[in-house]
Amino acid sequence: MEIAAETQKKAGFFAYGWDCLKSSKTKLVQVAKNAQKQGQDDPRKIIHSLKVGLALTLISMFYYFRPLYDSFGVSGMWAVLTVVVVFEFTVGATLSKSLNRGFATMVAGALGVGAQELASLFGEEGEPVVLGILVFLLATASTFSRFFPRIKARYDYGVLIFILTFSLVAVSGYRVNEIIDLAHQRLSTILVGGATCIIISIFVCPVWAGEDLHNMTVRNMEKLAHFLEGFGGEYFKEPFDGESVVDSKDDKSFLQGYKSALNSKGTEESLANFASWEPCHGRFRFRHPWKQYLKIGALTRQCAYHIEAMSSYINSKIQVSAEFRMKIQEPCTKISSESGKAVKALASAIKTMTDPSSADPHVENAKAAVKDLEIALNAASLDETDLLEIIPDATVASILIEIVKCMEKVSESVHELSGLAHFKGVEPNVTPEKPQLLHRGTIKPIPDGDATDVIITIDEVSSVPPENDKGPSKGKQDESRVNMG
Amino acid sequence: MEIAAETQKKAGFFAYGWDCLKSSKTKLVQVAKNAQKQGQDDPRKIIHSLKVGLALTLISMFYYFRPLYDSFGVSGMWAVLTVVVVFEFTVGATLSKSLNRGFATMVAGALGVGAQELASLFGEEGEPVVLGILVFLLATASTFSRFFPRIKARYDYGVLIFILTFSLVAVSGYRVNEIIDLAHQRLSTILVGGATCIIISIFVCPVWAGEDLHNMTVRNMEKLAHFLEGFGGEYFKEPFDGESVVDSKDDKSFLQGYKSALNSKGTEESLANFASWEPCHGRFRFRHPWKQYLKIGALTRQCAYHIEAMSSYINSKIQVSAEFRMKIQEPCTKISSESGKAVKALASAIKTMTDPSSADPHVENAKAAVKDLEIALNAASLDETDLLEIIPDATVASILIEIVKCMEKVSESVHELSGLAHFKGVEPNVTPEKPQLLHRGTIKPIPDGDATDVIITIDEVSSVPPENDKGPSKGKQDESRVNMG
After folding, report:
1. Which ranges constitute the DSSP H helices of B286-386?
2. Would you place residue A32 in the very low, low, confident or very high pLDDT band (cuts 50, 70, 90)?
3. Residues of B in contact with A387 (CB under 8 A)
4. Which chain A positions have a beta carbon within 8 Å of B371's beta carbon?
5. Nearest CB to B84 within list A38, A160, A470
């Protein structure tokens, strides 16, 4: 009995061990699959990892070899630290962190030396008290400043490093000439680390925050366009249950895509912030109007909210009046598809950075279809129709009209962008909101060289919906870049 | 002439200086006002700044005084560094960073020693090569792991510190016994710094991420409730232009409040993540169902999208049919106000952590009002009405019906929360979705002590809309906390 129990126990133990091994194997396989998916989704992630590895290895070796090690001293490790902390996915983020770190270290170091000098005037007993008070005041004030939206958006990391360096220098207990030596070492190592990061980040397969923002804006608009182009067909399709279920399963994705635009605010804002740190790259100039992308993004989101409300009527089980549907089906489908085409044209204009005027006919068509819809509604006689049965269709029609209004605003703001960013084929001095009707044919296009002096009037953001502006959203890009040089 | 020009120049210079002084004075005043506003908005920001100042001063003094300084050596500065980097606004964030930092330093230190030992086997020439390869591999793999949503959400900072410490130890060039000394010093100083932060963060006016999430959820629901309660009156009000403009200006804010719920996803997710690191506090147990708040938040947001679409019909200039409006005004106002009351009751149930059943009558009333509306619509004869004139009202009615559906889902998920979090007056083993109709009066409430074993069935998140799940949103709280101890 006992032996049997023992054997069973042993067998149980081995079985348990085997189970563990098997489950950890499946887990490993899962992790590997996950990793593969991550890499396939965005190969830049793999490249970024390799870049960090490269930068860190370079700096580590730099630090490891004695001749360099001796000249830099222990502070060589600051170079390693800088690389690890400063190297971010996008060039803009890396630049922002490096510059913040370098600048803050300099200012805080100088202030720290000053604080020490000041404290030393108070004698051996007074010194720690004065230093303590100074550290307390500075840390408190700086920490509080990090709550200011503007500072949080652009200089958060700088303030952190400022507090850090000031405290370290002020209480280090070194004498001034020692400190200056130390500061020189630290600054030069930070420079080496930061420069390595910046160089690798810019010159080895760079990931530009600005380009990301540009692509993200385009992608969100394209998704909206897909939805709108397909919506009419999907909503008004005949309910042949058997067939439609089968063939609709694979192409339903276009009905969900727009959802990614609903929550894009945070990402867009941080990308725009990082983009404003970036030098000119590819098709983007140094002061590319990144702020305008945020405006377009907000309007796209506004559209997406309406679409979200409208999408709850797709596949609704409510009985609808066939007579009424027949009357509005055509204009509604037209509105939806023309709006979709307009948004698509606008997205492609941004993508290729060309004149977005090719969207204008579609905008006009959509507006004409709205008129048609209104006429159809006006003419509809409802003598024998149950009102309840027209409600879903009427709602969809009404929301479509709102979407056209939204889409017009998107179009306006894309036209603004095309003017601000000097898209190809755009006359730079025509205010895009009041289009060419008056000027067409009479205005002379100003050559590109003069275009920089042209002031483009833009109605302020009144058309952008007031969104949740708590946090670091407002006026992120107002700051001048000069300070950080 | 020259003198006059000179004088003018001087005057100009002084005027310029004076202007500068004045403008910098106005700027300073502005900054001060801004700071005052920040402090008044949330006095916890001031308290947090003072807490950081306190922690840093304590640690700096600790580091400054020689007896301590001698025993800790240069690594005392790691304590200062830890305080600056780790002290965050909420307890959860501080805990998360401290634990990540401590744990990562330990593991990476051990691995670093191992790497060094391994490399030393390859002789003087092979050593740097092997070390370089190891650093490269580890940095690359770790950086890549930071893209995994789960790791990014909870262990991002830990991985960063892991890379940092490993590189520093591996290439430090110290011998093993020196390293163990160094590691001991570094770990103990990090412990001192981390512990100071944690203690001050928890015991001096703590800011709990969990409580913040709880309050934010309540606040967003209350804002929705305000909108819904006021919407009927606002939308159907008689257009007495002169009067209404005056008295409506001051109470229009309730029409905008809901917008803060539109973009709350990111904040909610990071708060829920930090909350899961927090110990029990106040009314919240250790494993409070923070994830359920995200579900409620997503449904609240869904409601807010519908409200956003509906709000474009307030103050629309379109002529409406008075006859039709008369018929639907009452049920619509009822739906809106009862939904508002229901959401308010749900919000207050979460706020006070009591049984949310008090919302049920309002939910039922709202549903009854939907029925009434449908009857009214059914009965409405439209013989002489222009269809175009009923469209806005019909759309509002239709969206209100959708809002009731949404609100029902919110109510369900609040009931779920009340069961999961053992709200006062909730029978813990009744599945909240299939309410008491069958059981009422026959079931015996299980005493609180046993309640932990009760399994509560919850329909999975199918009712939550698929949102933009790119990034660190999915399954944040699945991870067990045990690993980080």
Report:
1. 290-311, 322-352, 360-379
2. confident
3. 377-378, 380, 382, 394
4. none
5. A160
Structure tokens at A196: 């390595």
Q: Which of B65, B78, B124, B147 has the most A C-beta neighbours within 10 Å, making it the best mutation to test the interface with A?
A: B147
From CA A28, how far away is CA A22, in angstroms rounded? 10
Query: What confidence category does residue A478 fall into, taking pLDDT thresholds of 50, 70 and 90?
Result: very low
Angle (CA) A235 A239 A240, round 5°: 135
Q: Quick one: pLDDT at residue B408?
A: 93
Residue B479 to residue B277: CA distance in whole angstroms: 11
3-state DSSP assignment of residue B227: helix
Enter the tokens of residue A151. 């500072």
Do residues A456 and A292 make contact, with C-beta atoms less than 8 angstroms apart? no
Cβ burial, residue A71 (10 Å; 0-12/13-18/19+) = exposed
Looking at every residue in chain A, the average pLDDT score rounds to 79
More confident residue, B140 or B319: B140
Strand partners, A284: A281
Q: In chain B, which residues have their Cβ closer than 8 Å to the Cβ of A77?
A: 168, 172
pLDDT category at B212 given cuts 50, 70, 90 is very high
Residue whose structure tokens are 């770790």: B142
**ipTM score:** 0.78
pLDDT single digits (tens) B217-247: 999 999 999 999 988 888 887 664 444 444 4
Min CA distance, A72 vs chain B (Å)? 13
CA–CA gap between residue A198 and residue A71 (Å, rounded): 23
Considering only CB atoms, A260 lies closest to which of B34, B132, B470, namely B470
Q: How far apart are CA B90 and CA A368, in angstroms?
A: 54
pLDDT digits (tens, 9 = 90+) for B375-412: 888 777 666 667 778 888 888 999 999 999 999 999 99
- Is A34's CB within 8 Å of B160's CB? no
The nearest CA of chain B is from the CA of A27 a distance in Å of 14
Q: Which residue of A has its CA nearest to B375?
A: A388
Residues in B closer than 8 angstroms to A399, CB to CB, are 309, 395
Q: What is the pLDDT of residues B459-482, one digit of tens each?
A: 333 333 444 444 333 333 333 333
Contact yes or no for A84 and B131 at CB 8 A: no
CA geometry: angle B335, B338, B340, nearest 5 deg:
105
Chain A residues with CB-CB distance to B265 below 8 A: 263
CB B325, CB B393: distance < 8 Å: yes
Partners of B284 in the β-ladder = B281
Give the C-alpha separation, B171 to A77, whole Å.
9
Q: Which of A220, A402, A408, A399 is nearest to A310 (CA)?
A: A399
DSSP H/E element including A470: none
Test the B interface: residue of A131, A144, A165, A227 with most B CBs within 10 Å: A144
Query: Rounded to whole angstroms, what are the CA distances from B437 to B67, B366, B430, B433, B459?
Result: 72, 19, 11, 11, 19
Decide: helix, strand or coil at residue B354.
strand
CB B215 within 8 A of CB B253: no
Which DSSP category does B465 fall into? Answer: P
Residue listed under structure tokens 């490096």: A98
Mutate to test the interface with B, among A391, A393, A473 (most CBs of B within 10 A): A391
H or E, element range at B389: helix B387-420
- In this predicted model, what pLDDT tens digit does every residue of A408-435 receive, in sequence order? 999 999 999 998 988 887 765 544 444 4
d(Cα A152, Cα A158) in Å, to the nearest integer? 10
Cβ atoms of A390 and A320 within 8 Å: the answer is yes
Nearest CA to A79 out of A201, A198, A186 is that of A186
Tell me how close the Cα of B426 comes to any Cα of chain A, in angstroms. 33
Q: Which residues of A touch B261 (CB under 8 A)?
A: 468
Cα(B67)–Cα(A173) distance, integer angstroms: 13
pTM: 0.79
